[in-house]
Structure formats: C-alpha cells, structure tokens
Amino acid sequence: MSQAIGNTALAYARVWHVVDAKQRVMGRLATNIATTLMGKHKPIYDPAADCGDYVVVLNAKDILVSGKKAEQKLYRHHTMHPGGLKEITFENLQAKDPTEPLRKAVSGMLPKNKLRQVRLDRLKIFEGSEHPYEANIIKQHGVTNE
User: Fold this and answer.
1) What's a single GO MF annotation on this record (predicted)?
2) Starting at the edge strand that comes first in sequence, how are the strands of the sheet with 16-20 ordered?
3) Alpha-carbon distances of 83 from 39, 44, 75, 93, rounded to whole Å
4) Measured on CA atoms in the order 125, 141, 51, 30, is the torsion positive or negative?
5) CATH number at residue 114
6) Structural domain boundaries enclosing 121
7) How far is Cα 42 from Cα 17, in angstroms, rounded to an integer?
8) What is d(CA 115, CA 50) in angstroms, rounded to the nearest whole number?
C-alpha cells in the first residue's frame, strides 16, 4: 500500500502564517521562519519541490539579538570596485531598515539554490503591527513551537 499523498492541489496549498517578532531572539525566529518557507513542516516536503507557506512577520523593529551582537555583528558587501568592501553593524542596519536584518538571517538559513529567492518572496516583513494581508491569514499562531 502506498503512503504517498500525491501531487494534489490540496497537499500543495499555501497557508499564511503570522509571527509577532516583538521581544523575540532573531536567530531562533529565523530558523522557524526558514523551515516554514521551505515547507519542512508538511508531510509532502521534498527539497526540490517548492511547497512552503507564506510568512508575515510583524513588529520587526522590536527584534532582539543575544550577547553583544547589536554592537559587534557586521554585515558586509562589496561594490565590485577596488577597495569597495562596505561594512555596517546590526544597530546601524536596523536603524536604516528594520526589516533587513531578519531578511538576511532567514536568507542565510535557506538552501543556496534557485528556489531561495522564490521562497524569500513569500516572506513579508513589517516594522509595525499593521499589514495588508489580513484577508489571507488563516493561522494566527505563527511558526513557533511555543
């Protein structure tokens, strides 16, 4: 007897999850979000198939990091010109764009393949608690195991 669920539309249906990031540690939150974006919580998970869900993150400006990461963590990028290595600390990046540190953390936890950007496009991060996806939300509990 086969245990396969099959390639049905119901099995691959995407669910919208809401997560409140207020007073949550960024790394632990990012791992749970990445798992949901990949679809690892579903019984039909396949690394080559895109079966993940949408995730809406609220209150990204109030996210926490442990230890001295706020002052010491550096985000680097290169402009591709000689001497073009640019560095920015977590505090400065969060002041500039509060959604970017969490987006970079989740991006680093996703597989480095062609599905990475597709999965990141399903991640919606907002500074405050208002968002335009109220009609789509089915799961209010979020992607945490609390």
Assistant:
1) mRNA binding
2) 16-20, 54-58, 123-125
3) 40, 47, 16, 21
4) positive
5) 3.90.1180.10
6) 16-65+98-136
7) 14
8) 7
Which DSSP letter does residue 15 get? -
Total domains, the chain: 1
Going residue by residue through the chain (146 aa), what tens digit of pLDDT does each one get? 455 555 677 778 899 999 999 999 999 999 999 999 999 998 889 899 899 999 999 999 999 999 999 999 999 999 999 999 999 999 999 999 999 999 999 999 999 999 999 999 999 999 999 999 998 887 665 554 44
Q: What is the pLDDT of residue 145?
A: 44
Write the CA distances from 114 to 93, 103, 108, 111, 119, integer angstroms. Answer: 26, 17, 14, 9, 9
- Residue 125 belongs to some domain of the structure: yes
Q: How far apart are CA 43 and CA 38, in angstroms?
A: 12
pTM: 0.87
